[in-house]
Amino acid sequence: MQDLFAEQLKALRAASLDRHLREISSPQGPQIEIAGWRLINFSSNDYLGLANDSRLRNAAIDAINEFGVGSGASRLISGTQSPHVRLERALAEWKGTDAALCFSSGYAAALGTIPALVTKNDVVLLDKLCHASLIDGAKLSGATLRVFPHNNLRKLETHLHWARRAHPGKRVLIVTESVFSMDGDRAPLPDLVQLKKAFGALLVLDEAHAVGVIGPHGRGLAAAEKLSDDVDVQMGTLSKALGASGGYICGSHDLIEWLINRARSFIYSTAPPTAIAAAALAAVNFLSSSQGEKRRLLLWTRIRLMRELLSPLTSHVSPSENSGSAIFPFIVGDEQAAMDLAAALQNECFLVPAIRYPTVAKGSARLRITVTASHDEDQIRALCHAIKRLSKTA
Ligand SMILES: Cc1ncc(COP(=O)(O)O)c(C=O)c1O
């Protein structure tokens, strides 16, 4: 058994594609501790700095005191406790949809939802840069899968014509993200909505990296574009800007009832702990408040500074604020060179992950820099100076 994997691991190492866990001995935040070192953390999706916020911590502690730790059973058996119901009501209200359903992770939301919506004779059209959870959900559904080049509407239209011809009367699902997780750019949502309407398709929009960041009170791209009613399935995660854990789907009453009956990752999994639901509810309440909106606008001042300082160093920074996000790719290309640059930055006390194949295409390895509302301006300036200096010598 060991020999079997030893060969494969050797091949991974030889291609600079091996991965390792690092132990963080501190809470999440703009500075974290690894092996006794304090590092400035530009690797986290905790965009609003809520992962260690006292509002969320206290909500979780209160829920533990009231409900205990484990939730005992799956949601349909006896695992649905009051914090789950409160969270789903608050999510639906915040997103402006009829209803919401929570899953134990965003990954589980995708894996359960897509196969509940389409089956063998249907079609899924996926953006090339979609997250693994969406790809895996689409594959699991058994539907015919076609990938369109990233944000390429012309190709998507060609696929839609084909789908209507080759699969008459069948369901066609367009799946994309509002903010792409490794590139930080946005989907052209108004055009996508136009296309999905023209071809009678359904649209699944993963707002994982948009909620908390984009749109009024962080409601996401669909809300920012005033297109919430045109997105059939609004997916998201509670584990990034919302600082907690879990995934969700927002949509119509019928959609949510159907998922309760058909989404296998929801049905056959123990309900998430109530402490997590309570913490996520505290995050939604915070985002809906004026204080939450102030925090989101503070994040945008940090994003603007990062854009200004990184733009001269790389051509991959989005051209305008309206097409950007809190994610900045610094593309290096070669896998080992990206690892070396990340290691050099770590030597200077910056944690910036090198992202490699298979998360991104071979030869497009990059630093993935994320900025949060908790970073101060000096930390952002120091990182950009270090990247400028070290990427020249690399
Ligand atoms: C775009 C996107 N969708 C879904 C997920 C999965 O969410 P979760 O981490 O809650 O499982 C992620 C997580 O990295 C993501 O980036």
Architecture overview:
Helix 5 runs parallel beside helix 6 (132-141). The chain has helices at 2-14, 54-67, 75-79, 82-95, 106-117, 132-141, 153-166, 189-198, 221-224, 253-262, 264-267, 274-288, 290-310, 335-347, 377-393; strands at residues 31-34, 37-41, 99-103, 123-127, 144-148, 172-177, 202-206, 233-237, 247-251, 327-333, 350-351, 354-355, 365-370. The protein is globular and about 55 Å long. Helices cover 45% and strands 16% of the residues. Bound molecules: pyridoxal-5'-phosphate. Pyridoxal-5'-phosphate binds at residues 105-107, 131, 133, 177, 181, 206, 208-209, 237, 239, 247.
What is the H-and-E element order? Answer: HEEHHHEHEHEHEHEHEEHHHHEHEEEH
The proportion of strand residues reads 15-25%
Enumerate how many helices there are, as a single number. 15
As laid out across the biggest beta sheet, the strand order is 3-9-8-7-6-4-5
Q: Hetero groups bound? A: pyridoxal-5'-phosphate
Instruction: Give the termini separation.
Output: 39 Å
Give the integer mean of the pLDDT values.
Answer: 96
Structural class label: alpha/beta
Global outline = globular
Largest sheet: 7 strands, mixed
**Cα gyration radius (Å):** 21 Å
Roughly what percent helix? 40-55%
By DSSP, the count of extended strands is 13
Uncertain spans: none
Oligomer: single chain
